[in-house]
## 1
Amino acid sequence: MSDTLRIGLIGWGTVGSALGLLIAQGPVRVQIVALAVRDPSRGRATPLPAGVPLMSPPELIREAEIVVEVVGGVDAALDWARDSLTRGRAYVTANKALLATHGALLAELATGHGGALLASASVGGGAPMIELVAHLAATGRIERLRGVLNATTTFMLSAMARGNTYAQALQAAQDAGYAEADPTFDVEGRDAAQKLAILASVAWGGWRSESEVERQGIVGIRLEPGATVRLVAEATPERMTVRPMRLPPSSPLAGVSGVASGLVVELTDTDPHLLVGPGAGGRATAGALYADLARLSAGERPILFAPRHGAIG
Ligand SMILES: NC(=O)c1ccc[n+]([C@@H]2O[C@H](COP(=O)([O-])OP(=O)(O)OC[C@H]3O[C@@H](n4cnc5c(N)ncnc54)[C@H](OP(=O)(O)O)[C@@H]3O)[C@@H](O)[C@H]2O)c1
């Protein structure tokens, strides 16, 4: 194992603070050399780490060889990622929105400046979906991806199958902390579409955008009691779709419930692979970021997908 990784961490929220705890426990030797948050004075469940200098993101990027971004959103994150990758930094992120919007540019910058781009946590939370797809993509025989990738809609659809209305299910998801005050992103299928675009980019070797996903969310949907319906994200080399689907009990995705995410990878010449794991939550997601740091610690410099656009159809 190489020397201690010196990282700059942007974000100390649900995921960032959970990553901080993992780093403190080891075994990978990681030092947080700089931290950036939006409002250092706000009260927080996990205090900011003692002795770590607080900086603005641009200052932090100048300071650290490895930049870990756990903030989210597209515009500011794009500036940070460009700045980092242009300087040849390794950029590690959980930010699916950034990758599904500007992934080709970031991969190009990483390739052109000797940087690295890692984002295990952007899809599947703690379930290593990107790694499974990358592994299976090596033989070039992935035919189809089919996943239940968004926990909020799984929670709501399960509640509706028990007789709740859409409004009741949404309220229950918000009360349980599964849905944001503004749930648009989840219930309109954008979260699942972004994750699908990232998985398809890894599966077929060229970047694909969220905007290419045909999308139908679950807003206002009605279910028959007992029906197993999930928001299913599906990709082939030609097409990407997100839509609610009724699943037969025999479907491996019918058993995906709670905060789990599930992915089936179909191959041309062997049986499908199924991966189910914790799809959200600070600790699980931080575990995926930590695994990315372990790869860097082992000397790898991966770039998530090829810099060209992988045109569909
Ligand atoms: N939560 C999950 O289960 C989960 C699962 C998978 C992926 N993700 C992804 O992980 C990322 C972070 O999610 P989260 O749930 O941890 O979010 P969060 O709890 O809202 O934390 C966001 C953090 O970013 C900081 N921040 C916001 N704007 C900033 C700015 N301009 N400069 C510096 N810091 C800024 C905030 O600072 P303050 O602390 O001062 O407010 C906060 O520490 C997102 O991309 C999300 O999609 C989350």
## 2
Amino acid sequence: MFSADLGIHVKLSDVRKSNILLVFIGFCIGVIGLMTARFIAYKSDNVHYHANFALYVDGTIDKFNGPGYYEEVQACTSENADNPRIRTHLHDENPSLVHVHAHTVTWGQFFTNLGYSVGDSVIQTGNGVFADDHNDNKLTFWLNGKKVDSIAGRVIKSEDVLLINYGKDDDITLQKRYDAVPRDAREANTKYDPAGCSGDENLTFWNRLKRSSWFE
Ligand SMILES: [Zn+2]
Ligand SMILES: [Zn+2]
């Protein structure tokens, strides 16, 4: 009798132990699964892509000379994503490569960050205000090969090519200027550039793991 009782007792505690083990394993799988999901999803929060543009006023291209037009690369971390200046800007003295670090950033916001202001028929640059007038001076926008009436409210798309022209220029001249806009956005999108801006630059595997876990 005694030995049979003991036998049942041992069996029960074994069952209890294996149940606890199963619950523990289940918990671990759950935690690892959630962390993996967060790890994978984390990357999609980091926006970083590029577009190209050029601005001509009265036949002269705006070279955006001066450090005030270029954002420090160090500023481009996801912690600063709420700062409007960080959402889109220029880097590395490259006056034709637009860096975008957030969703739904418009061309208008980009120019505002440069200290410029762009409307449909008037543009304010570092050199003054230029508006459509009776002498046939006209503000013109060519976006991805097509003439458009307005760009301020348009969201900057990856690898957009934009020409803004103010003056009395004919379509042949505009076409030439549009064709001359550098096309380095694609390269910047695909290549890791340690000297350039990369929103994910400091987001190493371990940083990402840390941020996607609950340890930070
Ligand atoms: Zn940047
Ligand atoms: Zn960039």
